[in-house]
Known about the structure:
This protein is mainly alpha-helical. The chain has one domain: Tetracycline Repressor, domain 2 (Orthogonal Bundle), CATH 1.10.357.10. Helix content is 73%, strand content 0%.
Amino acid sequence: MARASREQTEKNREAIEQASSRLFRERGLNGVSVAELMADAGLTHGGFYGHFSSKDALAAQACRRAFEESTTRWARRIESAGDDPKAMLVSLVEPYLSAAHRSHPGVGCAAAALAVDVAREPADKPVRQAYLEGFKEMAQGMARTVESDDPQVRHEEALVRMAMLIGSLTLARATDGDPISDEMLKAVRTRLLGSTT
């Protein structure tokens, strides 16, 4: 009996993490209540504190989960490109700077979807550390796309590329519905990829 209960508890926690990861990316850290998160997970509001001590603790875990999804997706794309750094870059940039990614933040990049909200959180909130760790891991993946033997050059160029991707996606979402949104995605794709597309 205890085993079945433990398994159900793990399933419930998984459902909460999955729902919160998606909803926080779609609507922001403060754009969704605990009751809404629990309802989306198919659970009652009262069960929340059996899984998490606070909404802050859930936000940090949801952020970690969102970054895990992002870094896993990036790792698959990088590996599928072989050993060519330029092909790796194309495999990351093309889907990232797309209308589909712009329009579906709930299943997209955690770095872009959560950046503004996390920046507004106090420095001692656990979501800040979760975001930082996730961002650094993504930047390490991006560094693999830089053609240089100098680790510092790879690191700096990776940060520039990350800023271009995240910034342009964030702005494209903010201007969605106007032609400038698509123009921005296209301009940054062209700047990052040159004539390879």
